[in-house]
Amino acid sequence: MKLFNISFGFFGVQIAYALQSANISRIFSTLGADPHNLSYFWILPPLMGIIVQPFVGVWSDRTWTRFGRRIPYLFVGALVAVLVMCMLPNAGSFGMAAGTAMVFGLISLMFLDTSINMAMQPFKMMVGDMVNEKQKGLAYSIQSFLCNAGSLAGYLFPFIFAAIGISNIAPEGVIPDSVIYSFYIGAAILILCVIYTSVKVKEYPPAEYNEYHPADVSETAKEQEPNMLQLLAKAPKTFWTVGLVQFFCWAAFMFMWTYTNGTVAAGAFDAPTILKDGACVLDTTSSQYQDAADWVGILFAVQAIGSVLWAVVIPRFKSYKVAYVVSLLLGAVGFLSLKFVTDQYLLFVSFLLIGCAWAAMLALPFTLLTNALKGGHVGTYLGLFNGTICVPQIVAASLGGLILHAFTTPGELAPESTMLFLAGILLILGAVCVRIIKEK
Fold this sequence. Notes:
By secondary structure, the chain is mostly helical. It has helices spanning about 1-30, 40, 45-60, 70-85, 100-130, 135-165, 175-200, 205-210, 215-220, 220-225, 230-235, 235-265, 285-315, 320-335, 345-370, 380-385, 385-405, 415-435, and strands at about 275, 280. A two-stranded antiparallel sheet has the order 1-2. Helix 4 packs antiparallel against helix 7 (about 175-200).
């Protein structure tokens, strides 16, 4: 139960993250963004993550208050996230011009991802602080379960609200009510979950913490001062080898978050197209497009279910590395199939397979890394390790538009499904790189 309490707030944080992941492309497309430019809107979230999380790690390593070591950062991050979640989906509702609304949305997105990153990282750090090596696999599995449960809820909210009669279509440039209410409910659940963890979890005070981390006691005061560049230079080999696998995996999922809406709308729902500024784009005011966007939430929820089911299978493998390879290859098959599958229900199979890769990405890298770490800078290393998540997303977001342009025939709809096929190739490369990881 204590392991569960440490991670329970992660459920609320993941609802916020799922709402962001499933709806950012939808929101900015509705506000008038060109599909070739969609990937650029996705640069901000990982950019803020790579800036924020290392500093949260460094500062929280050096913090102790009567509320704890990591929890103050968790609570402040969640509070800011709640406020921004009430603002972001209203970007098109204030009567601003399309360009102004997109700038407002970008600023809101920047603050939302900053706060989500600030709230997310302490959960991984508390496991490193308070859980022994034998229990870490279980602790991160619990975290993975709560992560997927939160994702499932966040992905389903817009579909559920539309099913009970709340409108999922709106005038041009305005976000549908079903999406707005989803963000409101997600914000309420987030703050309640974080309050629960903050009340239930008592972090170890410095003296007790040092009993479980004796390396901290022997270090000099100078050595205890975290210097991120020096620590990065001394990072264990596992940090870099797992990081290489992470590069291919997170680039693949960045393409999924960016291009699934357009792929499903064009392939499975036959959404109508319009000419806009001389380019052929999907009509985001059409019921087909918005129905497809709701269906993407269902598909992402299926992915989360697949991840939960596969997370039960992963511990049955005798080797973490074998589990990692099999999981990524299954996910690759799921991504590759999206280029050819156009039946909305058959897409469930594709996303169940993608969920296998997601389960491995959530649990295995942190298990492998934390077991290789010693000393008093676990939080800093976990913050730095977040760079292996953020950098590939930034690279994928920066290059995504250029790659899509290369495959687009002038005057025709951009083939967003090609980007998902490329995501499958990236997961295969990640699986190949797993062989260089040393488990200890």
